[in-house]
């Protein structure tokens, strides 16, 4: 599939080099200039970029270009591997207390998303049958305690608070309370603060020594720019950071801050917040972030998501049908429902390589969830016979279907037209790819 | 602390962080490739962005060569002039509409400081003797309404609110009507934080604009985008998309009291010609100041 800008730039740089067996210094330097710019555009701190590029250069010099790759791809491969190494190779888990409760402190700048992340983490733990307690220790921002309370209520997770009292007292009391009431996790939402604010940084340090948390998670906005290194460094200097939560990853930022923070703190990124909904919070996969920073899309995530939701059995059936060209409206409906299970469509689109940066160009083919529902309604208003053989749908049937689905005859017409185009496409596809259809059969829409 | 001092204190960190390297850089006698490479790094390090930086440095290089400049101070002057050209030389305060109320819509992604900015703006206008009303258009985030309520009482402004989960357009529609009825000079409209790549939320914003315009033709008179100085290159994408949906009249750059430099506003001004109107330099209710481009550039490049 199409690699985005960096890849295409690299390919252009290497056009004249096709067929080379080894990477020379000159080739590598030219390529790494592009890599450097790409990383800087992705907001990776310039110092981190410098170190990184020199590391890659060392490794790339004299490397054999693998038979299956072009020199450009070879450099990308090395860059990607090194990035992954820097990001941490595996997803990291939460530290556990030897005796419950496990105490988790959320810290960070204002507006990074601490309160929301604390609630999302509580939700995640609750789903795994734990009994988390949320602690409101942000006594500065107006209504911050209230915000946590509202979220706690939504999740049915209790929220401990002592008003605007000294937060050190609050967390100490919260820990006692958790022990008594048998909560196995205590999640502390602290106030947002500037890393240069001595007084408030000191407050955090006092909280740390008061409750001895197993985890201190630095919450970082994925859109943070060059300053991410300063922020991370200051928090690391004052506290025993154990991990990072990367928020607002559902935006279209490349998220280079992840790399900067990781390089400075050495702490693993443990969670990623990916949406406004309370369950949009997941374990962080470092390897995938590497491709995102480079603008290569998050193919892995997409594939995994698809695999998890797509019923193997049904997929095979569908593939069979498509190959034998018996793809009906019934199957179309089923496929749509499967797709919907995978999550919001625009999120899926963004995960595909080449799509992420194409936000603007994509506007024309705006994925409208409502349109989806309309299509579903239209198909559901057809009889079984009509679904299997759309050719019989004459104008009076069209009128009935439109009335039944609350749409217009034009809507029905355009769906039928779409479907027949799709059928034609499938016919052509299966003719074209008869031999090698197997691997791709699962994604007729890709 | 006086206004000027607060600005200075706010930008101090900007300054001290840049000062060391820049001072060293400009004490060189030669303006060679190394000089320009390093200048590039400094600007990129301030989040000015690769494209804008490369353009600025390239232009500086040509101008320095053409004018045969050899003095560091002169090179600095040329650089400042260039940055100011991009940023716009003048201060651009908020202009009140001919007939009251002046409706100001405040937009931005999540967590940039929209509600706080509104609170500070309210007290700024209040201090000028204006009658101010706030409209709680963030009906999505938990306790956002309560947060605005606290700011309303701190700044002694009036407040129009609905329940959490209500239609923001309806809240702001009521806000405009109430502001007219009660003879307010200024209506500040809060909105929920929205990432610019969420189509549905941007559609919601279009509706908000339509509805405000219906309640009072010509409104909103000002559409301010709040940008977080710690944000990197994504701020440009934010400005682009928001500007497309709701033609921006100004930018508010918040959180300048940290170590972030907010250089991305230079890229934003360069591309979209939207002026920065205010900067946020602290948590206090008075910590919002009119943006002074020359002082900002000085702060960015100060050499004491």
Write a structural description.
The complex is a heterodimer of chains A (446) and B (304). Chain A is of the alpha/beta class and 446 residues long. Chain A folds into three domains: 4-86, SRP54, nucleotide-binding domain (Four Helix Bundle (Hemerythrin (Met), subunit A)), CATH 1.20.120.140; 102-296, Rossmann fold, CATH 3.40.50.300; 309-430, Orthogonal Bundle (434 Repressor (Amino-terminal Domain)), CATH 1.10.260.30. Chain A has 19 helices and eight strands. Chain A has helices at 5-13, 25-41, 46-60, 71-87, 114-127, 144-155, 167-181, 198-211, 228-238, 257-265, 286-293, 299-309, 312-323, 329-341, 345-351, 369-380, 384-388, 395-405, 409-432; strands at residues 102-108, 132-137, 159-160, 185-190, 215-221, 243-247, 269-273, 281-283. Chain A has an eight-stranded mixed beta sheet with strand order 3-2-4-1-5-6-7-8, with helices on both faces. In chain A, α4 packs across α11 (286-293) and α7 packs parallel to α8 (198-211). The longest helix of chain A has 24 residues, at 409-432. Chain B is α/β, with parallel strands linked by helices and 304 residues long. Chain B has two domains: 3-87, Four Helix Bundle (Hemerythrin (Met), subunit A); 102-292, P-loop containing nucleotide triphosphate hydrolases (Rossmann fold, 3-Layer(aba) Sandwich). In chain B, 51% of the residues lie in helices and 12% in strands. In chain B, strands 3-2-4-1-5-6-7-8 form an eight-stranded mixed beta sheet, sandwiched between helices. In chain B, α7 (168-181) runs parallel beside α8 (199-215). The longest helix of chain B has 24 residues, at 3-26. Chain B is elongated and about 65 Å long. At the A-B interface, α2, α6 and α9 of A face α2, α6 and α9 of B.
Brief digest:
The complex is a heterodimer of chains A (446) and B (304). Chain A is α/β, with parallel strands linked by helices. In chain A, 53% of the residues lie in helices and 9% in strands.
